[in-house]
Amino acid sequence: MIKRPSQRVAVLIDAQNMYHSAKHLYDAKLNFPAVVRAAVEDRQLIRAIAYVAKSKTGDEMAFFEALVEGGIELRVKDVLEFSSGMKKADWDVGMTIDAVKLAEKVDALILMTGDGDFVPCVEYLQARGVIVEVIAFAKSSSSELKGACDMFYDLSEETDQFLLRAPIRKPARRPITRKNSK
Fold first, then answer.
1. Full strand arrangement of the beta sheet holding 44-54
2. What is the pTM of this model?
3. If residue 77 lies in a helix (H) or strand (E), which one and from where to where?
4. What structural domains and CATH numbers belong to the chain?
């Protein structure tokens, strides 16, 4: 696929999907701004939007701030908690509606997700002449989504560039005790 600097591009990020994929596959965090920069390359970025969920504790606020500092807009919704203990914060419809709205303003739309529920969205965009690229981890991505898009980029091939791993902690050193020698 040819990428031209004149292409207008939008990036829509399924943050929950990508966060959990990186965590479960690699026990790491994804550097979302770095992925956006690499995906866009030298093309014109129109919008980069991450769809995120806010918990009651607000533990994710540092993550949200890092996204904004990286030039990514946020769409935030509260996590729904059911009496069964199940939690849900699904953004599929919101992402799809934004993709449809952006279709007339961009030449290419990049979906950062592995969720196969986006296949009808991909097909709709392509029918309107929009190039659809998908960026995700192949192991946790729908084969239907990989087959439907114009280009699939496997983040697993660039883990050193896109993953943030916690530093390995070395055990604390015990002080050396010296015996008096006479």
1. 73-78, 44-54, 8-14, 108-112, 131-136, 151-154
2. 0.86
3. strand 73-78
4. 8-164 (3.40.50.1010)
